[in-house]
Write a structure and sequence with these properties.
12% helix, 163 residues, 4-stranded antiparallel sheet
Length: 163
Amino acid sequence: MRALNLMMSTVQEFDFVSGDAEASMTQLVKASSLRKGGYVMLRGYPCKIMEMSAAQPGKHGHSKIHFIGLDVFTGKKHEDICPSKETIEVPIIHREEYQLLYITDGYLELMDQAGKLRKDVHIASGELREKTTARWENGDDLMITVLSGLGQSVAVSIRTAPK
């Protein structure tokens, strides 16, 4: 009886009412239906397809597709090969535009058209950050394009806000 009580005391309770499943952030599609410029998960990284090539069927009867892509959030290059009839994960990526309100330590304070504020978007150091900071300090009203998916967000482009 004592062993049963010890086992029961170590049982954890889980809350299944709400959760965030990573599976809902991707969808499965046939590898042969993907195209250059689309998105795909390559070795666990969300990538934009830069190149893809199909190899002829070999002695085992399946043609293979070679994908080369750039990570959406870091810009790193990733490659993978998979059979053309196989299903492959595709990240669900959202593109949204926001008005830039303020820049603090590389983080952007943004507002969408509905007036909702965001302060969680980081702008990586580099050419985009330099251009954005210079134009914002110059007093320009800027619109920032943000890609979001898999719980991450990144600023990808800027343009002058319409008057």
